[in-house]
Specification:
Number of strands: 24
Distance between the termini: 24 Å
Largest sheet: 9 strands, mixed
Number of helices: 25
Mean pLDDT: 81
Structural class: alpha/beta
Radius of gyration: 29 Å
Strand content: 15-25%
């Protein structure tokens, strides 16, 4: 709080400061992510962490929180790797991180493992303007209680923070006398003060771009008065009612937008000019933050919208309405003193039953086909119908096969065309989390990639380094039974320091025989020779590598398309391999291990660039819905399906005697109530009663404001979407209960 005071002083730092005091790890992580997200390149940011530093069994640094359990560090602490990830993704080019904790010098962006305190971070964070100052090196403890008393006499400052606060407050940290305190200035002042005090600590400084001229604050002027400190985040016993008020204030305007003909929400831009919108993310971004505990409620709704949109880009309003209703249903039990953890178990059990019930009763998983895909893709509002788009998407989804790999590319024409390509498919995904997945498509795409096929594990840093050095101008795909951490670290470093991307793909083989077969097929497809450890990778020539015109990857599947080998030889070999085994092995087992599959490319055109962009977005949304319908079936109306849960779900053990279970089941009706109300239905209660008794044979169609036979309705939604939405809502309820 002492540092907050000097940083918020307009004559010194002028920062808008948000203290996060004594909070559990999940709250700290959320506040850090919220702080770094949606920033602009010119925003100047400062993150300060003062806490216990803990190393795990692999010597990775963790920052302790109020609820940290040393035996459960991954789930109850803030990993340094998490903070690294936020720095990497943040758009700001001016960021300072101050770390006041034991072993803070072990802070290693990129996962470097060596004890060298001069890690070359400039390579990974080139031109980002990020600077880090730590209180210690990687091996030292950080000392507290040796510093001066705080301004209000409550305790003493740590030696590191005492030096920083004194230097900023007095202006003595302006070592070059130019009126500004830079990163170099502050580090030099802190280091000198700590050496003078014999603090037994060796502070470190890393400049990750910016070359040391990042200005932190002005030199304090005489008579500068300390500013009142902002109110920190509330403690764990915060009033549930205030947080609920924040949730409801954010949910109320969003309810208006539910349905095929959404009502618009009036907003104001930063200059006070009014405008309207139906876009969920735009609305929540423009909502007032609220005050006190209510601000936490608004934050929970914003987090839920971001979470749900990231999961399916659909159903965000339904998720918010259901979240608001569930939290309201919990209030009587909270008022009676029921422990929030008990209520959290109840909600989780009920939502688990809901997911299972909807998938079985409405989704019919395993029986999906063209009819289900068509229902999911066709728009609910007839005026939005585009027959060419619908038919093209249905063909693409069905033609892509079980891998569901569909790409969407711009076209010079005016219509939508498609192409189905044979692919060599590996169904265990890839081990390259540093490769950025496209947010819109959910794919990683490498073009004109070199391919190395290995029948033995690739474990050492030398192996990884040799492979990337031989292919330093093309994307590289390494396929092997397994990969060592050192090899993966080399691939990550190469990709993150400006080199072509590198992807590590594990073979899904269960035995040496399958592994040999897979490598043979990959060799035929890409023309790669198979590495067997009879020599070293560094001795191989570039001719040892194969090629693929495209490599398309999701988190579960990697497909090599248009390999350098002869397509007819590859297809003939696959067929020869399949035929003798059809009688002895299940077809899905054979398909898994022979790597054969398909990828469908959709080429979308339009009258101009804007029209192409808009139509591609519609196609992308339709493809996602079609793929989800193919894998998990469809439900006749999401809001109707939720309302029917009061009838379909079984009682929850231990939750019925005080009415909690009944109240929660009743809350499932609120999305349907809001949908009917938004579209002018005179009796939403009657609609809910009819749906509860007759769903899934009937559903509610908001455009006609009446209950209709399900087969005649156009409101079908993928069952997987509803299941994902319930997951997001469960996470939001858990976050709420953790605050109360």
């Amino acid at each position: 709080m002492e540092l907050s005071g000097v940083l918020s002083d307009p004559d010194v730092g002028g920062y808008a400061v948000r203290p996060v005091i004594d909070q559990p790890a999940h709250i700290v992580r959320r506040e850090i992510e919220r702080f770094f997200i949606h920033r602009k390149p010119n925003d100047q940011l400062l993150l300060y962490l003062s806490c216990h530093g803990i190393k795990d069994s692999k010597l990775q640094l963790h920052f302790a929180a109020a609820d940290t359990d040393r035996d459960l560090l991954d789930s109850t602490s803030v990993a340094a790797s998490f903070v690294n990830g936020q720095l990497i993704r943040c758009a700001s080019r001016k960021v300072l991180v101050l770390l006041d904790c034991c072993y803070s010098g072990a802070f290693r962006p990129g996962g470097a493992k060596s004890a060298d305190t001069s890690v070359h971070l400039l390579e990974e964070f080139k031109d980002t303007g990020v600077a880090v100052i730590t209180a210690t090196d990687a091996l030292q403890p950080a000392w507290e209680g040796d510093g001066p008393a705080t301004g209000n006499g409550e305790g003493q400052l740590s030696v590191f923070t005492a030096a920083a606060v004194e230097g900023l407050r007095s202006g003595r940290a302006d070592r070059d006398g130019d009126g500004w305190i830079s990163v170099d200035d502050l580090y030099g002042h802190v280091r000198e003060e700590m050496l003078t005090r014999d603090a037994r600590q060796n502070p470190l400084r890393w400049i990750l771009g910016g070359q040391g001229d990042l200005k932190i604050a002005r030199r304090a002027t005489a008579g500068s008065a300390p500013q009142p400190l902002p109110r920190p985040l509330p403690a764990l016993g915060s009033p549930a009612v205030e947080i609920l008020a924040g949730i409801s204030s954010a949910a109320t305007p969003l309810k208006r937008t539910l349905g095929p003909v959404p009502r618009r929400v009036l907003l104001s831009d930063p200059h006070g000019t009014p405008y309207s919108s139906t876009d969920t993310r735009e609305i929540v971004a423009a909502l007032p933050a609220g005050r006190g505990h209510a601000a936490l409620g608004v934050g929970l709704v914003r987090d839920l919208v971001a979470d749900q949109y990231g999961r399916s880009q659909d159903g965000t309003v339904t998720a918010v309405v259901l979240f608001d209703a569930l939290v309201r249903a919990l209030q009587p039990a909270l008022a009676r003193g029921t422990h929030p953890t008990v209520l959290n178990h109840t909600v989780s059990a009920l939502l688990g039953l809901a997911r299972e019930t909807l998938l079985l009763a409405g989704g019919r998983p395993g029986n999906s086909g063209e009819a289900e895909v068509l229902r999911a893709v066709a728009p609910e509002a007839p005026e939005q119908a585009d027959p060419e788009l619908t038919s093209s998407v249905v063909r693409a989804v069905l033609g892509a096969g079980p891998e569901n790999l569909v790409t969407i590319e711009p076209s010079a024409g005016f219509g939508i065309t498609s192409r189905v390509s044979a692919a060599c498919v590996l169904r265990d995904g890839h081990l390259s989390p540093y490769l950025a997945t496209d947010e819109l498509t959910g794919l990683v795409v490498l073009r004109d990639a070199a391919v190395l096929v290995s029948e033995v594990p690739i474990s050492s840093a030398d192996d990884g380094r040799a492979a990337v050095e031989m292919q330093d101008r093309r994307p590289l795909v390494l396929v092997a039974p397994s990969f060592g951490e050192d090899a993966l670290a080399v691939l990550a470093e190469h990709s993150l320091t400006g080199g072509p991307p590198c992807m590590a793909v594990p073979l899904p083989a269960s035995s040496a025989g399958w592994r040999e077969t897979q490598c043979k097929i990959l060799s035929l497809f890409t023309t790669a020779s198979v590495f067997t450890r009879t020599t070293e990778i560094r001795t191989l020539g570039t001719s040892f590598f194969g090629s693929a015109r495209r490599v398309i990857a999701t988190d579960r599947t990697v497909a090599l398309v248009d390999g350098g080998g002869a397509a007819d030889r590859y297809a003939a070999h696959v067929q020869r391999f399949r035929d003798p085994l059809r009688g002895d092995w299940p077809p899905e087992t054979v398909d898994r291990f022979v790597l054969a599959g398909t990828v469908c490319d959709l080429f979308v055109g339009g009258t101009d660039e804007g029209a192409v962009r808009e139509r591609r977005a519609l196609v992308r949304r339709a493809v996602r819905r079609g793929q989800a319908a193919l894998s998990g079936g469809v439900l006749p109306g999401e809001a109707a399906a939720l309302a029917a849960l009061a009838h379909w779900t079984a009682p929850v053990d231990g939750a019925e005697q005080d009415g909690v279970g009944a109240a929660l089941r009743e809350a499932f009706s609120q999305p349907l109530w809001a949908l009917a109300e938004n579209h002018g239905d005179p009796d939403p209660g009657a609609v809910i009663a009819r749906i509860r008794s007759d769903w899934p044979e009937v559903t509610y169609e908001a455009l006609r404001t009446r209950v209709v036979p399900a087969e005649e309705a156009g409101v079908w939604v993928p069952a997987a979407y509803t299941s994902v939405m319930l997951d997001a809502v469960e996470s939001a309820v858990t976050a709420y209960l953790s605050l109360v």
